[in-house]
Write a structure and sequence with these properties.
- It is a single chain.
- The protein is α+β, with helices and mostly antiparallel strands.
- About 50% of the residues lie in helices and about 10% in strands.
- The strands form four sheets. A five-stranded antiparallel sheet has the order 1-2-3-4-5. A five-stranded mixed sheet has the order 13-12-14-15-16, with helices on both faces.
- A hairpin with a 5-residue loop joins strand 9 and strand 10 (about 215-220).
- Helix 14 (about 340-345) crosses helix 15 and helix 20 (about 455-470) crosses helix 25.
Length: about 600
């Protein structure tokens, strides 16, 4: 990855106001000195997502997502840091310095750039051919599928010519060499045949990544021929298991869920009908990579696979993969029609929206399909079904969730709730014995990252860091008594050290810059939490006038707790006879005694 100096990173960050940037994605309302809105990283009804223009940071008090303007684009847009830098630099008119690469890095970067150029050139060529005399039968095919010209343009649909070396000759004229063309996935070159196209005489569907860059193609044969649908092979820029068709458009939807289809035409038909949240896997079964990609943009997926046996099997394979990624799943029933495209043509968008509203819970869908294997009118069949259902219910690791599903499943299939619960517990005990616990596993599994319960000392240290950046003049009042070493958690101490240096060197605080100094997303999220600690029930309520006496009392208690904890921490770590440690303990004791006597007021 290119290296950027701290100065250029800070220039780009400081010239992109975080409120302006985030307002392009989230509707924000001002409350006092802070803006609030609905968190884009988890589903919520009450806005707990805060954006502070003073701190130039965002923080969600619900799920704990937080950081600066770089972090936001990396989380929301799925950008790398380099992509976030380039996007924000371009927005602010900052020219980034040319980066120094190793020879190998330069070669790889150049190759990737040329492969993307080739895909873009091919997409433009296919697009032009579709609208020419040579592409009239493919154009007629799209029209027969009831696609408007606006939709064809939106998805960049095209046509690959009937001559099997047409694209190859076109790209050669553009100056691309055989060596790079072989790696593009668009051309095959052999000694016997020379160069010939991967796609010919096909209606073409460009595949784009989430940043709207063409990375591959799907092609539907015109007339007779096999395979009916053909996809680009995997290349340095195209990984089928980590990309989804239509996600470049669906990621900006206002809907809180995504529709997951099987094919390109289903996605296109849904978008044309007003469902801008439809995506599809790329001619392959859903993978964990797909699920993790989906999780970046949603917490809930509606499966709208074909209603035939193959579609049901695909849904049964996909549900546990999505569940494992923390995504809630529902299944849309499109019978008597095969797929979304066919359904919408027959009954229209309103009827499809009703099917979305009536979608079946993913687990209940699994149970219903399971039940079809047994004769539930016969006692033996019903018993076997009950056993298998109980085993599946053991998969819920949260007790409340498991209990809710037991109560839902039992009456649906004429079983006694107590009997099913007993069977679940029995199988759970067997599972627990196999895992060495002797009981059902208990673990929270939700779509939202659960925040760990903190001990009081961690909260005290967080509050002190938050107050230092929020209360003007506080640093000057406490620097005699508290140092960065008094923050006993490693990351807290590191953040405090940066914060104290800012005060000492500039007299000002820049928490958003501190976030950028931490290399990984998890650390940045934790630092954002440090600088947004609160003791109020509703953080939005803190914008009113605080009671000076109440704050000063809380501040004094917090300072004393932090100092006392620091003394205990270093006393335990000190080696017997360590004179430096003994001298530090004496100095800390004096500082604590002075702190307990002094009245600290910043009003």
């Amino acid at each position: 990855m290119p290296y950027y100096s701290d100065d250029i990173i800070e220039e780009v960050r400081s010239r992109n106001d975080i409120v302006d940037v985030i307002s392009q994605y989230v509707r924000l309302q001002r409350r006092g000195s802070t803006y609030f809105g609905l968190c884009p990283f988890h589903n919520e009804k009450t806005g707990s997502f805060s954006v502070s223009p003073n701190k130039q940071m965002y923080y969600c008090f619900g799920c704990g997502a937080g950081g600066n303007v770089f972090t936001f684009l990396m989380e929301y847009e799925n950008f790398t840091f380099q992509e976030a830098m380039e996007s924000l630099a371009d927005r602010a008119g900052v020219e980034l310095p040319k980066q120094e690469y190793t020879t190998l890095q330069r070669q790889e970067a150049d190759k990737r750039a040329r492969l993307l150029e080739i895909q873009k050139e091919a997409a433009k060529y296919f697009y032009t051919l579709l609208r020419s005399e040579r592409g009239k039968h493919a154009f007629a095919y799209f029209k027969k599928r009831e696609l408007s010209e606006a939709t064809m343009q939106k998805f960049g649909l095209g046509y690959s010519d009937q001559y099997s070396d047409d694209l190859y000759r076109y790209l050669k004229k553009k100056g691309y060499e055989d060596e790079i063309l072989k790696e593009s996935g668009l051309v095959t070159i052999t000694e016997q045949r020379g160069g010939y196209d991967k796609f010919w005489n096909r209606a073409m569907f460009p595949i784009m990544d989430v940043h709207n860059k063409v990375i591959g193609f799907g092609g539907r044969v015109m007339g007779e021929g096999e395979p009916k649908y053909l996809n680009s092979p995997e290349t340095k820029i195209f990984d089928k298991s980590r990309n989804l068709y239509g996600l470049n458009l669906a990621r900006t939807t206002k809907e809180p869920y995504l529709l997951l289809c099987e094919g390109y035409m289903d996605v296109i038909a849904l978008h044309q009908a007003g469902f801008d949240n439809a995506v599809a896997s790329l001619g392959t079964a859903l993978t964990a990579g797909h699920a993790n990609l989906l999780k970046r943009y949603t917490k809930e997926v509606y499966l709208t696979y074909d209603s035939d046996e193959a579609g049901r099997k695909a849904a049964l394979r996909s549900i546990p993969i999505l569940k494992e990624a923390g995504i809630a799943v529902k299944v849309i029933n499109m019978q008597p029609y095969k797929d979304p495209d066919e359904f919408i043509k027959a009954l229209g968008a309103d009827a499809y929206r009703q099917r979305i509203q009536a979608a079946e819970n993913g687990f209940l869908f699994e149970i219903r399909i399971l039940a079809q294997k047994y004769d539930l009118t016969e006692p033996g069949g019903k018993t076997e079904f009950g056993r298998e259902a109980a085993k599946k219910l053991c998969g819920f690791t949260e007790r409340l969730e498991r209990e809710n599903y037991i109560e839902a499943v039992a009456p649906l299939y004429g079983m006694e709730t107590a009997a099913l619960r007993s069977l679940v517990n029995q199988y759970g005990m067997e599972l627990g014995m196999a895992q060495g616990t002797g009981r059902l596993p208990e673990k929270l599994k939700t779509g939202v990252q659960e925040k760990k319960k903190e001990d009081g000392m961690k909260q005290s240290q967080k509050l002190l860091l938050t107050w230092l950046i929020e209360k003007d003049g506080l640093f000057q009042k406490i620097k005699t008594y508290i140092t960065p070493e008094d923050f006993t958690e490693d990351v807290y101490r590191e953040a405090a050290g940066m914060l104290f240096r800012q005060f000492q060197e500039t007299g000002k605080v820049n928490p958003a810059q501190i976030v950028s100094m931490f290399p990984d997303e998890e650390s940045q999220r934790e630092i954002a939490g440090l600088f947004n600690a609160t003791i109020a029930q509703n953080p939005a309520e803190e914008e009113g006038e605080a009671d000076p006496g109440a704050f000063e009392k809380a501040l004094k208690e917090t300072l004393v707790r932090v100092k006392q904890n620091s003394m205990e921490f270093y006393a335990k770590a000190a080696a017997p006879g360590d004179m430096a440690a003994i001298q530090k303990m004496i100095a800390d004791k004096r500082a604590l005694e002075e702190l307990e006597k002094v009245h600290i007021s910043i009003y």
